[in-house]
Recover the amino acids of this structure.
């Protein structure tokens, strides 16, 4: 059975940023990968939160302060702090079920709280199709 | 987001002055410039008597070099050696911590050897070399918000100071430029700068300055000092900064903004009262945690 660790993006293949960098730098990092998500970690690589394109869209509509103030906030201020996660040994059927139930296409993969990868739906599907 | 830091001011034999959300309001004040030993002592004595009576902890402020005067003809200070010697004597005689600003990184070490608190001037608040020199003194840093800076961008200066090892910072508002020759006070700057976790201070006398409005000297509207003090203390500051003089018309620096010391007592009483009332209200109704659950 295919597991998360077989299909996930590894740490240099998706945006991983320190949780206390400024929000603007997080956006820049997100733009380098075009996945619509950034994972926020501390120095020990523990996952502290995620920021997605959808979160940013909602922020833009709701936040009532100038962009210059928004940009200089610590990234973690605008993150989802307890994101749904998975672990490397979880099988892909279970992962797809979680994604479907929660209507999300990203699942950070953690091992003892430490970020090890990201299951992003499209590359995951690509890998699965190629396997078949 | 950040913890609330307590900034502890005072080394050696002077009165220790803690500044934080938990402590009573602190007054930072004195004549803008050190004019002479005699005048500095007269001012320290007058302020000391007022603050002792009101039981408010205070820090004596005066500068040895005023580097950003509007005109090269204006008095620019007594000089670093003479000035710091006088400040050192004020410390010894009155047992009060002292603060002076410094406008050149090469002056920082000497300033920090005498002063309990070193001040980064507003115009220089984002200069890395100045911030590094301030941090290297090992003393707490009074960081003025530049008149051209947004309160949220002060986080960058705070990060620089932290990067250089400083964890004892007080952020101070002295007004923000609105067009030319005019300052305004945005009271939201206090909670915004407070998000850094460091205490915030209101500089009432420089806030009423009309920068260089008189051609080669700054004007000022000091009649607004009491209103602004009440607003700022009510909004939430941990320290109040005001330059005072016994004869403002003859003051060698900032004659149009320094507060006549005859008004200091009544303004401080108002400030202390509002500060205490605010504390009581916080205890009763909780801190400013409204609308925290709003979707953002």
């Amino acid at each position: 059975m295919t597991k998360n660790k077989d299909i996930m993006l590894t740490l240099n293949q998706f945006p991983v940023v320190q949780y206390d960098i400024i929000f603007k730098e997080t956006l820049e990092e997100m733009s380098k990968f075009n996945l619509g998500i950034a994972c926020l970690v501390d120095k020990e690589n523990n996952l502290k939160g995620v920021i997605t394109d959808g979160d940013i869209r909602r922020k833009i509509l709701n936040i009532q302060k100038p962009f210059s103030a928004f940009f200089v906030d610590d990234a973690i201020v605008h993150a989802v702090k307890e994101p749904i996660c998975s672990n490397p040994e979880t099988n892909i059927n279970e992962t797809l079920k979680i994604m479907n139930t929660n209507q999300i296409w990203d699942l950070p993969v953690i091992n003892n709280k430490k970020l090890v990868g990201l299951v992003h739906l499209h590359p995951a599907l690509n890998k699965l199709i190629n396997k078949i | 987001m950040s913890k609330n830091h307590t900034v502890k001011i005072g080394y050696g034999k002077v009165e220790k002055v803690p500044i934080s959300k938990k402590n009573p309001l602190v007054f930072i004040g004195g004549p803008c410039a050190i004019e002479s030993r005699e005048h500095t002592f007269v001012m320290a004595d007058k302020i000391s008597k007022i603050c002792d009576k009101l039981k408010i902890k205070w820090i004596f402020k005066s500068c040895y070099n005023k580097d950003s005067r509007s005109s090269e003809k204006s008095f620019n200070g007594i000089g670093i050696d003479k000035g710091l010697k006088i400040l050192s004597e004020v410390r010894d005689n009155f047992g009060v911590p002292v603060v002076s600003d410094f406008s050149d990184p090469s002056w920082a070490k000497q300033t920090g050897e005498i002063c309990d608190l070193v001040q980064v001037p507003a115009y220089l608040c984002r200069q890395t070399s100045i911030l590094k020199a301030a941090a290297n003194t090992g003393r707490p840093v009074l960081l003025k918000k530049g008149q051209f800076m947004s309160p949220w961008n002060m986080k960058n200066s705070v990060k620089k100071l932290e990067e250089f090892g400083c964890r004892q910072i007080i952020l101070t508002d002295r007004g923000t430029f609105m067009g030319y020759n005019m300052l305004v006070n945005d009271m939201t700057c206090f909670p915004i700068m407070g998000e850094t976790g460091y205490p915030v201070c209101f500089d009432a006398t420089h806030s009423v300055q009309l920068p260089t409005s008189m051609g080669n000297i700054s004007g000022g509207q000091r009649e607004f000092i009491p209103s602004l003090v009440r607003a700022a203390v009510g909004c939430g500051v941990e320290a109040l900064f005001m330059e005072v003089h016994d004869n403002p018309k003859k003051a060698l620096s900032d004659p149009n903004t320094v507060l006549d010391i005859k008004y200091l007592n009544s303004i401080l009483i108002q400030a202390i009262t509002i500060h205490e009332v605010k504390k009581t209200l916080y205890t009763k109704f909780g801190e400013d945690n409204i609308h925290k659950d709003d979707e953002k």
In short: Residues 7-285 of chain B form a domain with the TIM Barrel fold (CATH 3.20.20.70). Chain B has a mean pLDDT of 95. The two ends of chain B are 16 Å apart (CA to CA).
